[in-house]
Amino acid sequence: MQRIFFSIFSITLLLATLGCKKDKDDKKTTPNPDSEITFPYTDTLSVLTYNVAGLPEILSSGDPVHNTSEIGRRLNHYSLVAVQEDFNYNHFLYGTAQHPYKTKWSGPVPVGDGLNVLSQYKISDLERIKWKKCNGADCLTPKGFSFQRIEIVDGITIDLYDIHSNAGHQTKADNNARRSNLLQMYKYMEEHSQGRPVIAMGDFNSRYTNVEDTLEVFQQLGLQDTWLELVLNNVKPVKGSDKLDDCINPASGDCETVDRIFYRSSDNVKFRLLGYDKPQKTFQRDDKDLSDHIPVFSLLEVTILRK
Q: Residue 102 and residue 97: Cα distance in Å, rounded?
């Protein structure tokens, strides 16, 4: 079923050799002096999206008081991370995550959107966009998506989107809100990222098997779903078929979760997907998940053809 698939051991070994330079001063540009750069320039991005279940403990389905610091510590294995539901325990997450660049926390419930990016690369041009439509409990916080640019090498950036769409599936209003969410981000991306390299990841709360969901809109913009590409050889599950929730092996084609990673190359910046995984065991303690979501990982080679 899989065309390319990295074992946990292979991915861990490769991550250990990446050797991304760190800089505590977030006002400096991404390391790599221009005089040392030759083109084509190639780097490898270890990309992770994770809903960290950081709602107030009384509302969270996880155990954020005890787990968030440990999540932050384990995020250090990845060079580019997007988190969702990073609401009330951001100080724990940022306290142990050692990435030199982090988006500014937007606040707890009910003022924050829960979206943050942690990166080994400089972050700029951050915008937080609230959904125009929501329903039920999803309206209690200004959920939406964030847009930022990530500087891969001096002056050359990619567009990064972090998303958390409407979660409900019980009513027509839930489904209408989520469709509106995806369309809103699609239109924003069409306007702001035309012709640019893109990584879009997060908690889409959507599945290909769900007839009410519209993930396909992003493929109209040329985005590739990493799970679809490496695990299912770009063959989408049949819409309306049974939900693929046999997650004994989380990274298999029988386990479609709502968290996913999309990417798109540009004329000058080329991505190549090297690996995919759902590293559930990496984010467990005493065989218990640190969040109520399974993280999603992709290994992307990025090649910049010219300055």
A: 9
Distance CA 267, CA 75 (A): 31
Q: Torsion-angle region of residue 212: left (phi > 0), alpha (psi -120 to 50) or beta?
A: alpha
Would the CA dihedral through 56, 58, 61, 66 be positive or negative? positive
Question: At 237, is the pLDDT very low, low, confident or very high (cuts 50, 70, 90)?
Answer: very high
Rounded to whole angstroms, what are the CA distances from 185 to 22, 86, 109, 135, 215? 31, 20, 23, 17, 11
Q: What's the topology of domain 8-14+51-304?
A: Deoxyribonuclease I; Chain A (3.60.10)
Helix, strand, coil proportions of the chain in percent (round to 5)?
Answer: 25, 30, 45
Residue 251: strand, helix, or coil: coil
d(CA 6, CA 99): 24
Counting every residue written for the chain, the total comes to: 307
Using the predicted structure, report yes or no on whether residue 290 has a pLDDT greater than 60.
yes
Break the chain into its structural domains and give their ranges. Answer: 8-14+51-304
- Compare 28 and 247 and report the one with higher pLDDT: 247
